């Protein structure tokens, strides 16, 4: 039986049903951000090879910012009258993607896989912006700010898997495994 997630109250100027739609979108954004910061820490802990320290140090500020993004999304959910479900069980139950699949691996392989991860997250944020933008400019603004940072992080990652001629080694990869292999090749 589906629960009614319509909030009992919300911010002034937004109907409760509309707030419920925003909360629904933000719930998946919260799960994606929590998953992303754990994935980034996983990479931080499992990266090896000659580029270890560069990637190890590049990832930590991304972890911190993504955690801040998750906090901002959770607080927006609460402000709209919703409940921010930040538990691992909720994340696993409701996510629409698989777990990060690369274990202990070379830095370039992890960066190739991370490029695919960022592509998925960024595409989902853009879709969320379209939905909430029709209802609430404050939530839209929050997501746009996060989009800028996520795109910058992907740019940092792509700088490691791009040729001097501008070709991404991961351009044709559809999975993390394919991207990891392509980046190493």
UniProtKB/TrEMBL annotation:
<dbReference type="InterPro" id="IPR009078">
    <property type="entry name" value="Ferritin-like_SF"/>
</dbReference>
<dbReference type="GO" id="GO:0016722">
    <property type="term" value="F:oxidoreductase activity, acting on metal ions"/>
</dbReference>
<dbReference type="Pfam" id="PF00210">
    <property type="entry name" value="Ferritin"/>
</dbReference>
<protein>
    <submittedName>
        <fullName>DNA starvation/stationary phase protection protein</fullName>
    </submittedName>
</protein>
<dbReference type="InterPro" id="IPR008331">
    <property type="entry name" value="Ferritin_DPS_dom"/>
</dbReference>
<feature type="domain" description="Ferritin/DPS">
    <location>
        <begin position="26"/>
        <end position="162"/>
    </location>
</feature>
<dbReference type="InterPro" id="IPR002177">
    <property type="entry name" value="DPS_DNA-bd"/>
</dbReference>
<dbReference type="InterPro" id="IPR023188">
    <property type="entry name" value="DPS_DNA-bd_CS"/>
</dbReference>
<dbReference type="InterPro" id="IPR012347">
    <property type="entry name" value="Ferritin-like"/>
</dbReference>
<dbReference type="GO" id="GO:0008199">
    <property type="term" value="F:ferric iron binding"/>
</dbReference>
<comment type="similarity">
    <text>Belongs to the Dps family.</text>
</comment>
């Amino acid at each position: 039986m589906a629960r009614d997630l319509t909030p009992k109250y919300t911010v002034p100027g937004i109907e409760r049903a509309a707030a419920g739609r925003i909360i629904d979108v933000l719930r998946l954004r919260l799960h994606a951000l929590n998953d992303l910061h754990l994935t980034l820490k996983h990479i931080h802990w499992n990266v090896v090879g000659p580029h270890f320290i560069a990637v190890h140090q590049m990832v930590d500020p991304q972890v911190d910012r993504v955690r801040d993004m998750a906090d901002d999304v959770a607080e927006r959910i609460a402000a709209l009258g919703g409940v921010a479900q930040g538990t691992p069980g909720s994340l696993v139950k409701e996510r629409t993607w698989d777990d990060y699949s690369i274990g202990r691996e070379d830095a370039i392989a992890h960066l190739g896989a991370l490029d695919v991860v960022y592509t998925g997250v960024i595409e989902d944020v853009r879709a969320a912006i379209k939905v909430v933008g029709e209802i609430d400019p404050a939530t839209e603004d929050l997501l746009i700010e996060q989009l800028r940072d996520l795109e910058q992080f992907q740019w940092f990652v792509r700088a490691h898997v791009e040729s001097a001629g501008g070709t991404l080694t991961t351009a044709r990869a559809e999975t993390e495994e394919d991207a990891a292999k392509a980046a190493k090749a």
